Amino acid sequence: MKKKILIGLGALLLLFIIWSVYGLFFATPVSPPASVTYNEAGLEITIDYSQPSKKGRKIFGEESEGALQPYGKYWRLGANAATEISFNKDVTFGGKSVEAGTYRMYAVPGPESFEITLNSETDVFMGAFEPDYDLDVLTIEVPVQKPAAPVETFTIGFSAKENGANINFSWDQSMFQVPVAIQE
């Protein structure tokens, strides 16, 4: 009898391991990974993030309204793993100096503006967990604008500007941008 129970438990454990490996390495993620790179005039910026979709949900708003991402709360600027940004040169990020390197990037949304923070804690597997705030490098505040039409999938992109680029973020009824320029 013990042998049958042990065989049954072993089979269940094996099925769980197979299911976990499949989920981690083979299943298509609900929020697929994305990477965008800006590379002009010697400045290279790369952002690695995941792209959640609206799927009929209220994205930004008050917690009492059932918003997916409530105002005033940490947001990893995507889904799954923490969003990371890399600069190949010293730059100004929203007007503040930052050294070349890789940083964790997160936000705290609000109805009129978002706080965007760069943090030196990188290679974080699960970005759902809040960062070590003592490792924050800088925080900026950017105004929120409303796009012409709702944006279904969270998207980060670039637009060129003199001596750098604007990083453009858009999702649902919100869009904002962060100017980045090479430090002189």
TrEMBL record:
Listed name of the protein: DUF2911 domain-containing protein
Lineage: Bacteria, Pseudomonadati, Bacteroidota, Cytophagia, Cytophagales
